[in-house]
Amino acid sequence: MHDLLLIGKFPQLAQDMIDTEFRCHSLEDVNGNEALRTSVRGIITRSNCVVPPEVVASLPSLGIIATCGVGYDLIPLELAARRGVTVTNTPEVLNDAVAELCVGLLFALLRRIPQGDRFVRSGAWRQGAFPLAVSLAGKRVGIVGLGRIGKEVARRLEPFGVTLAYFGRADQHLAWRFEPDLRRLARDSDVLILCAPGGRATEHLVDAAVLDALGPNGYLVNIARGSVVHEDELIGALARGAIAGAALDVFDGEPDIDPRFFDLDNVVLAPHVGSATVETRQAMTRLALDNLHRFFDEGHALTPVKAAVAA
Ligand code: NAP
Fold first, then answer.
1. How many domains does the chain have?
2. pLDDT of 306
3. Quick one: which of 182, 202, 203, 186 has its CA closest to 243?
């Protein structure tokens, strides 16, 4: 059995899978034990955990960092590439779950489902009807980052009678309209959905100018990364009604998120649960473990992250 450094806390079902196939050690264990530090050949982690560069640098036998998740913005890719360390993620197997959450958040936002639940529980219903909400049918939806997840979101939204367009670095020549100018996409959308990766290249891609273009009847859904949005400017836009509302699964500094979100009635907040279903977390863990086995057995992984695409 190989020794792994484990960074982050996994759900019990995933941890049990890992423990059946590898010996996991905490950073504390590894740091305090020279023999162990030398024997660790792999790191297993989650996409919302930082893999510190000094840890990567301190493990002489490290060959692979396997993250459970598709995002790798918290892994020092350049350092890993320089040291010849393979980095793997778990693409595709989580597309359905993340797209389902995205569509759910969108409906929760437009139809004010969480507010309706609170309205019924509090007894406010007895004093009068719940205010009217907003339909999805007929709306213009702009997707920022039409990749694996973005496409699944688009496919699921199409039957609801929306008009779809997307922004990215390149026209993919699809049936949906490509818009190379993000502000123009925001101006021409009722709903903007963020599905792009985090990292330096997309940091604060959505700022006050984009939110102003989206406008007072526009809605934002972010299932990508908190860093893609300028959070301070988003909170300002939500507070002054520059946009109508936002549904957010991801935040800067999560889980210790900006408390100003709690006072806003026009937001739906989710605790980064895009892929958090039993079926999906099992599939992600399986793929991460298969990457480790394949790397240790054959020297190459199933789903390596390419350093060239690191942001
Ligand atoms: P993907 O297939 O790589 O798609 C990402 C898309 O973003 C691509 O279509 C790419 O299109 C676009 N993009 C990349 N860099 C860009 C840039 N600088 N500006 C504009 N667009 C850019 O990745 P995926 O599997 O769909 O995952 C997308 C992201 O979702 C992940 O990176 C992760 O952060 C997030 N995610 C969140 C959860 C959750 O729990 N909420 C779960 C899984 C994933 P072009 O190449 O044409 O630009």
1. 2
2. 82
3. 186
Question: Which residue's C-alpha comes closest to atom 21 of ligand 1?
Answer: 168
255 found inside a domain: yes
Q: Which domain holds residue 258?
A: 95-269
Quick check: CB of 168 below 6 Å from ligand 1?
A: yes
**pLDDT tens per residue across span 229-238:** 999 999 999 9
Q: What pLDDT is stored for residue 307 in this prediction?
A: 57
131: pLDDT confidence band, cut at 50, 70 and 90?
very high
Query: Would residue 310 count as lying in a domain?
Result: no
Q: Decide: 197 in ligand 1 pocket, CB within 6 A.
A: yes
Residues 168 and 242: their CA atoms lie apart, in Å, by 24
Whether the full predicted model's pTM is greater than 0.70, yes or no, is yes
**Residue 74 forms part of a structural domain:** yes
Residues 85, 127 share a domain: no
Dihedral in degrees, nearest 10, Cα atoms 156, 159, 163, 166: 20
For the segment 35-54, the average pLDDT, to the nearest whole number, is: 96
Q: Does 70 sit in the ligand 1 pocket, CB within 6 Å?
A: yes
Q: Are 78 and 104 members of one domain?
A: no
Alpha carbon nearest to ligand 1 atom 38, residue: 274
What's the pLDDT band for 309 if we cut at 50, 70, 90? very low
Using a 6 Å cutoff on CB, does residue 56 contact ligand 1?
Answer: no
What does the alpha-carbon distance between residue 47 and residue 12 come to, in Å, rounded to a whole number? 17
Q: What's the mean pLDDT in 86-95?
A: 98
Q: Which two three-digit tokens encode residue 111? A: 């139809």
- For residue 311, being part of any structural domain is answered with no
Q: Residue 225 CA: which ligand 1 atom is closest?
A: 34
30 and 101 belong to one structural domain: no
pLDDT at residue 279 in the model? 98
DSSP 93: T
Same domain? 72 vs 59: yes
Q: Whose CA is nearest to atom 29 of ligand 1?
A: 197
Catalytic residues, which ones? Answer: 225, 254, 272
